[in-house]
């Protein structure tokens, strides 16, 4: 799915950024641009971060 | 329902979100016909959730030579989300039809069916389609009239599956006790993917004299 309409960043690209270590919306924006323009997609970005943190075997702390 | 009009020879852009007043969707779309026509839209279908007040599913059929990314970043989408009162812009599905079939032919006087829509990531879309076909008798027994499968442009593992079910009771039953071939329904609502949508057809907007 297209998460960031401003830059055309997809959920897969965001998930890859998260898998590479981005654990906050700011870190994702820095890594792939998603949420760096109007920032109205940051809820979706956070949903991807949360889902990755909830995956079995994830070592990332769940954002609280 | 006229989903066939939306996907015919075109891409489908679908978005699912909650808004304060779903009754405003139709008049606001009407007012944006010109902008929609400029981006190549020919039909827009609107569904309203039967289970979550304020939730709508909007599917736009588009014929365009523009890359989908350019269409999505056009002002039409941002203006639209502003107008309907969506602050957090939802993730948007863009793809094309890869399979469809009809299991039960509805009689002209049958009430309109209920739409169950889900977007999921699967390991293999071709395998999913094969599973769906192998389970046709079970789907038919559950009241599933039609099935459409769309594949995303940006990720070949990502599919949007629409099922038209004969009535709301059967739709709810099917979601609770579905066949193994519909196990993907349990995977919706994870990460950026919206939860399963159960809704009714509201209206179809034809643009530029499309029939």
UniProtKB/TrEMBL annotation, chain A:
Coiled coil: none annotated. InterPro entries: BFD-associated_ferredoxin (IPR052371), BFD-like_2Fe2S-bd_dom (IPR007419), BFD-like_2Fe2S-bd_dom_sf (IPR041854). It comes from the Bacteria. Keywords: 2Fe-2S, Electron transport, Iron, Iron-sulfur, Metal-binding, Transport. One of its GO terms (molecular function) is 2 iron, 2 sulfur cluster binding. Pfam families: Fer2_BFD. Belongs to the Bfd family. This is Bacterioferritin-associated ferredoxin.
Automatic annotation (TrEMBL), chain B:
This is Acyl-CoA dehydrogenase. It comes from the Bacteria. The lineage of its organism: Bacteria, Bacillati, Actinomycetota, Actinomycetes, Mycobacteriales.
């Amino acid at each position: 799915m297209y998460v960031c309409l401003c830059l055309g960043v997809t959920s897969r690209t965001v998930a890859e950024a998260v898998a590479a270590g981005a654990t906050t919306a700011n870190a994702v924006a820095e890594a792939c641009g998603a949420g760096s323009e109007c920032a109205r997609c940051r809820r979706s970005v956070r949903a991807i971060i949360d889902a990755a943190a909830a995956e079995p075997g994830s070592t990332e702390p769940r954002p609280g | 329902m006229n989903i066939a009009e939306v996907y015919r020879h075109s891409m489908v852009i679908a978005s699912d979100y909650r808004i304060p007043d779903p009754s405003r969707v139709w008049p606001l779309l009407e007012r944006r016909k010109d902008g929609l026509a400029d981006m190549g839209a020919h039909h827009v279908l609107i569904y309203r959730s039967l289970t979550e007040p304020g939730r709508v599913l909007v599917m736009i059929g588009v014929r365009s030579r523009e890359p989908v990314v350019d269409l999505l970043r056009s002002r039409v989408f941002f203006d639209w989300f502003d107008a309907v009162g969506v602050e957090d812009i939802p993730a948007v599905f863009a793809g094309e039809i890869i399979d469809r079939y009809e299991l039960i032919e509805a009689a002209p006087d049958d009430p309109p069916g209920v739409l169950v829509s889900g977007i999921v990531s699967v390991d293999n879309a071709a395998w999913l389609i094969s599973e769906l076909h192998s389970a046709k008798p079970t789907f038919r027994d559950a009241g599933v009239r039609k099935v459409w499968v769309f594949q995303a442009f940006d990720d070949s593992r990502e599919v949007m599956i629409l099922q038209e079910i004969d009535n709301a009771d059967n739709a709810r039953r099917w979601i609770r006790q579905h066949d193994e071939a519909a196990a993907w329904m349990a995977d919706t609502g994870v990460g950026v993917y919206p939860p399963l949508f159960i809704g009714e057809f509201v209206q179809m907007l034809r643009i530029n004299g499309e029939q």
